[in-house]
């Protein structure tokens, strides 16, 4: 689950709740002080009523889609205090404002909302707040997990059973694993396709300028676009090598297939890198603000090809070296200054009533207790409201009271998961595709039993079944080799959980 390194800081008034900030970097100033560059996160109390209605609608939709278990009204009220809104607003704050740490995670459909109430200093977010435009947008980094995103695999047809599906609605077949060609013949044809691609680039003027050397042209001709075209050609020509050869080199000259890496100019690539530095992997904003003449699919394809280049590796190394040189830790002494909102001075005798100037017999505005070792003034001064020690800590951390009150700006029973107000329209959520990740044992079996699995042959015949029992038996018989591979090649993975802090 994604986590954000967050700090909580107080506003100018000591009576206001902590602010939540995510630390981007720590910098040392010329006079020796340490400043933190932070990203702002906002609470519900920081946004307008219209945007709160929008957040309510999003919360109801989430509850329905994820089928959340029933919770009490008080829990629904407290869940609003755990919801935050991410932003792209940066600011610099003195590191001496740090007051503690917390954890903020991106909400996904496998989460149980009530579990956040069981954890101390835990928050979640699902929407992004723009303080300038005063808008709420769905977060682009939402994780696509849950039962609704799993593929529905139909049952395998029995022997002699006919396929009753409508073939026009199925995917187009692009490769036949049961073709008459052997693997060496296919490999030879792919070599010819690369050679044709290299020759086609030598004849093309624009390609000659971008790839002036033979090595560069050969490298460009060896990318996936050439291999995909070659395999499509075999499929369209019914795996007849002679016809496929003639299709690669028609009468007008050799066929030239170029991908996004060749279609983009150097200036466009520079614009993309500048946009990526500013927006991250928010491809919609990258296209809208920097490359409006490119399609979204073109931007996404270029990104994944750009990640395979030497330039990406060099930039990654430079960023890693820059990160190593930055300040990573700073010592913050314990904050011991007295809070001006304290009604009773530290060391005075605790009891039921507050200090002079406050009426006797007043109870806590949140939990309604009449006894506390320490009382704090809260709310409008003329109301003479106060909070007990535990409720004051809750107010400072979560920005609300444990029970709803009119002074807090909420009526009894209202929550973002039960209100039926008019629903404002949210922008559509752009979700990311999930991935399937193999276990270490499976990856080991691929190496140990490579002669049985034949991964290259299996990749060309995706519908042919693999005898897992035979692979498992062979793996067992070669257990000594497996153990040796584990001992020599698998390094232990440690997880350095990002630290989250609180600002005053």
From TrEMBL:
GO function terms (MF aspect): chromatin binding; histone deacetylase binding; sequence-specific DNA binding; transcription coactivator activity; transcription corepressor activity; zinc ion binding
UniProt cross-references to SUPFAM superfamilies, sorted A to Z: Homeodomain-like (SSF46689)
Pfam families: BAH (PF01426), ELM2 (PF01448), GATA (PF00320), MTA_R1 (PF17226), Myb_DNA-binding (PF00249)
GO CC list: NuRD complex
Residues covered by the BAH domain: 1-140
Sorted UniProt keywords: Acetylation, DNA-binding, Isopeptide bond, Metal-binding, Nucleus, Phosphoprotein, Ubl conjugation, Zinc, Zinc-finger
Subcellular location: Nucleus
Family label: Belongs to the metastasis-associated protein family.
Protein name: Metastasis associated 1 family, member 2
Originating organism: Myripristis murdjan (pinecone soldierfish)
Lineage: Eukaryota, Metazoa, Chordata, Craniata, Vertebrata
């Amino acid at each position: 689950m994604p986590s954000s390194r967050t700090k909580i800081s107080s506003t100018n008034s000591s009576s206001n709740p902590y602010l939540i900030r995510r630390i981007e970097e720590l910098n040392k100033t010329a006079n020796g002080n340490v400043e933190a560059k932070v990203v702002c996160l906002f609470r519900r109390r920081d946004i307008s009523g219209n945007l709160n209605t929008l957040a309510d609608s999003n919360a109801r939709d989430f509850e329905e889609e994820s089928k959340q278990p029933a919770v009490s009204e008080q829990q629904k009220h407290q869940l609003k205090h755990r919801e935050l809104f991410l932003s792209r607003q940066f600011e610099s704050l003195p590191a001496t404002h740090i007051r503690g740490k917390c954890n903020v995670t991106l909400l996904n459909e496998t989460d149980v909302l009530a579990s956040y109430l069981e954890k101390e200093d835990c928050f979640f977010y699902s929407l992004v707040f723009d303080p300038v435009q005063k808008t709420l947008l769905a977060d682009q980094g939402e994780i696509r997990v849950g039962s609704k995103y799993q593929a529905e695999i139909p049952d395998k047809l029995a022997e002699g059973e006919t396929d009753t599906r409508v073939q026009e609605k199925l995917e187009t077949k692009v490769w036949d694993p049961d073709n008459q060609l052997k693997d060496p013949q296919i490999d030879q044809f792919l070599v010819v396709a690369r050679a044709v691609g290299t020759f086609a680039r030598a004849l093309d003027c624009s390609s000659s300028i971008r790839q002036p050397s033979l090595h560069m042209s050969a490298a460009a001709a060896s990318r996936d676009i050439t291999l995909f075209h070659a395999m499509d050609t075999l499929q369209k020509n019914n795996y007849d090598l002679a016809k496929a050869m003639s299709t690669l080199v028609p009468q007008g000259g050799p066929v030239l297939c170029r991908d996004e890496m060749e279609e983009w100019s150097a200036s466009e690539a520079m614009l993309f890198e500048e946009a990526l530095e500013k927006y991250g992997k928010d491809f919609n904003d990258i296209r809208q603000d920097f490359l409006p003449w490119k399609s979204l699919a073109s931007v996404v394809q270029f990104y994944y090809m750009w990640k395979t280049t030497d330039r990406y590796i060099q930039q990654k190394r430079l960023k890693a070296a820059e990160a190593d040189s930055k300040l990573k830790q700073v010592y913050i002494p314990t904050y011991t200054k007295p809070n001006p909102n304290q009604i009773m001075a530290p060391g005075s005798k605790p009891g039921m009533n507050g200090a002079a100037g406050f009426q006797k017999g007043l109870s806590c505005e949140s939990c309604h207790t009449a006894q506390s070792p320490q009382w704090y003034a809260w709310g409008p001064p003329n109301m003479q409201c106060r909070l007990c020690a535990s409720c004051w800590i809750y107010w400072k951390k979560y920005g609300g009271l444990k029970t709803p009150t009119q002074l807090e700006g909420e009526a009894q029973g209202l929550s973002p998961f039960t209100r039926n107000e008019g629903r404002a329209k949210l922008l559509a959520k752009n979700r990311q595709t999930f991935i399937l990740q193999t276990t270490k044992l499976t990856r080991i079996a691929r190496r140990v039993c490579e002669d049985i699995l034949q991964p290259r042959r299996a990749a060309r015949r995706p519908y042919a079944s693999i005898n897992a029992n035979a692979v498992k038996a062979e793996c067992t018989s070669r257990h000594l080799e497996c153990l040796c591979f584990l001992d020599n090649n698998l390094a232990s993975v440690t997880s350095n959980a990002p630290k989250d802090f609180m600002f005053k």
